[in-house]
Each structure stands twice: as structure tokens, then as C-alpha cells.
Amino acid sequence: MGAPKQKWTPEEEAALKAGVLKHGTGKWRTILSDTEFSLILKSRSNVDLKDKWRNISVTALWGSRKKAKLALKRTPPGTKQDDNNTALTIVALTNDDERAKPTSPGGSGGGSPRTCASKRSITSLDKIIFEAITNLRELRGSDRTSIFLYIEENFKTPPNMKRHVAVRLKHLSSNGTLVKVNTQLLIQDS
Amino acid sequence: MGAPKQKWTPEEEAALKAGVLKHGTGKWRTILSDTEFSLILKSRSNVDLKDKWRNISVTALWGSRKKAKLALKRTPPGTKQDDNNTALTIVALTNDDERAKPTSPGGSGGGSPRTCASKRSITSLDKIIFEAITNLRELRGSDRTSIFLYIEENFKTPPNMKRHVAVRLKHLSSNGTLVKVNTQLLIQDS
DNA sequence: CGGTAGGGATAGGGTTCT
DNA sequence: TAGAACCCTATCCCTACC
């Protein structure tokens, strides 16, 4: 029988992302033929690439809602979020599996956002913003709406959260911690 | 709101089994489209069929298959079959709880294995073998190893049970009680 | 034919309900 | 704790359209 199910490895996913960055979407056969990726993706077809890319996109789009839902479900009854600072504490930025970042020709992403960020007096809100951008995992970065949505659904937020976030985004963007790509924001790779 | 939980009726279960026998596992949509079953299963989705089949399998297979199945599952795509090959796979056409069958047009499947078997001087060991094949419920049949395991784990067995079983299997196969189809063995439908 | 986009089906892991 | 029913979604397959 064929493969029971061939799950995508982080390496393969990274190769795909890099391939898309290099050749663009819809160039599946081209990416497969590129010697830079052909080895890693040798067990994948052009259709597989297409499917996986679609899946990645969808995941990124709805990522925040999903996480929020899960977070809510997992919250045991009676586990109230008090006003303690921990309410807004950020779980360790999950960079572990971020290793598989689009290592496009040139630089491999890697630096922990916190590291570079800590040099710039990060507020707890900033941490949240980084978490959002990191966890959203959107290849081309996340726009403000996605970031708002993520934060809104993953934290107890004050009424004017958006404004606060917007302010911080502008700040982080202007001081170089975040890089604006087109209309999107990326964590600056140090 | 949602259905309170729609329990499977014996009719539905019978239809599902018949459908799998006719079209094979993994052909859920096909089974659902088959006019022979579509009426009975009209309130079920292809996914429901898949889930139910999984539940049936899991339940029936407690004990023996575990090892066998796990071993098989672990088998990577390219792994070769050793000499303990699948040539002895056996399929149980019907089981006792199949009585809800009359409803299916064309009356596929039907006779109780035991019935036809009893005409051929069934030994108590044979009954056990039939039980094993029946309860294993493996669509593509049960190989000797699975049968051995089933018996081993469900009965107090003498030390040389395997040999006895093997002998009976060969006997039942040669006298037509079990039918070898392709590389498989079926209980002969009377 | 070869390639891509899109719809849809299946496989498996998880979750909920009993 | 287990079993049955159901949910989620990554992966795979099929078809239409160049």
C-alpha cells in the first residue's frame, strides 16, 4: 500500500516556503526542479506542494481563531484570570519549531524576538505582539487586523486594546524592531 | 441544537458492513451512494461511516490485533513482506449480528459461517477459529498470525495451539469451508 | 500530455458524551 | 475508565481547464 500518510516535516515546509519566496506561488513544478529544494522535496509532487501551500495559508488565516477556541476550551472552570500581571504574561515564544523558517537565499531567520527586542525596552504588550506575529506564522508577515484578532482572542483585553496595540506597532515599526513589508509587519531578523 | 448523539442501529451497522464488503474500506462515499445502502444510511455521512467502521474494528480487535496491527502500521511504505506473508488472509463474510440483512436488496452475503460449517464436522477448535475470523472483522481478512494471537489471548491455550490451528486452517481451506481468494481466504458462502 | 486550481474525500488524531 | 459518536484538518485524489 502507499504511504499511510506522509506528514510534512519542518524541513520540507521550510523548503516550500523558501521556494515560494524565490519563485512565487503557483510555480510548483519550478520549485521542485530548483536544485536548492529538489533534494528536500524529492518525495513530493507539484500537486503536493500546491496542497500544502494552500493548507499553510488557510492555517495562517484562521490561526488566531483556532488558538483562541482551544485556549478557551482548555481553561478549567474556575481558573479566573485575575488582574495579576500574569494574566498578560506571555508563554515562551515558541521559536522551537520556528527553526524551519523560510531560509531564503541569504539569511536564516533565527534570532529570538525577545533578544533583539529586549534591547529596546519591551513592554508586556510588545511581548504579546511578538507572540501574535510569531504564532500567526504568516509567511509574509501579519497585518494589524490579524494581530488585533489574535490578541483579542487569546487574552482578556481592555476595551481600547486596539489603540494601544496600534500605537505600539507604530512605535516598533518606526524604531526598526518590526519591519514593514508592503503593508505587513515582520519581526526584524537580527 | 446538534443531534443528541445518533446511535447506530443494527440495520445501519449491517448496511455498513455489507457496503464495505462490496466496495472495500475507504470507499465511504461510494458506499453511501450505492442505492443498496443509501436509504438505510441516509442520515449518515461518509465520515460517519469511516468513524463507525473504525469503532467496529477497534472494539472487535481488542487483545490480539494490537501487536499485529501496530507492527503493520509501523511498516514503512517500502518494507518488504517477509515469508510470513499475507497469503493466508481470511475474510469472514458474515457474522451472527448480521441478521438485519434481509433488507438489503439482492441479499448479498448471507449464510452464517457456522451453519455451513456445521455440515462439515466442525471441531471445537474450528468454532474458535471462526470466532476469531468473525471477531477480527478484518476486511481483507485475517492472517494466521492474527488468528493465533486472537485465540491465544482469548482462550486458555495448550502449548502447541499454533500447530493445531494451522492444521485446521489448512484443512478448512482445502475442504472449502474457507475459501482462498487471490491470496486470501474466505469463509465459503453457502 | 504536463501543469495548476479547486472541490471534495479519506485518514487519523482529538474531543465529548455516556 | 472505557467505548461510541462526533469533530478537526492535514493529506491525498479527482476533475476541469488551460
Automatic annotation (TrEMBL), chains A, B:
It is found in: Chromosome; Nucleus, Nucleolus. GO terms for cellular component: nucleolus; nucleosome. CDD domains: SANT_TRF. InterPro entries: Histone_H1/H5_H15 (IPR005818), Homeodomain-like_sf (IPR009057), Myb_dom (IPR017930), SANT/Myb (IPR001005), SMH1-6 (IPR044597), WH-like_DNA-bd_sf (IPR036388), WH_DNA-bd_sf (IPR036390). Residues 5-57 form the Myb-like domain. Gene3D superfamilies: Homeodomain-like, Winged helix-like DNA-binding domain superfamily/Winged helix DNA-binding domain. It comes from the Eukaryota. Residues 1-61 form the HTH myb-type domain. This is MYB transcription factor. It comes from Arabidopsis thaliana. The lineage of its organism: Eukaryota, Viridiplantae, Streptophyta, Embryophyta, Tracheophyta.
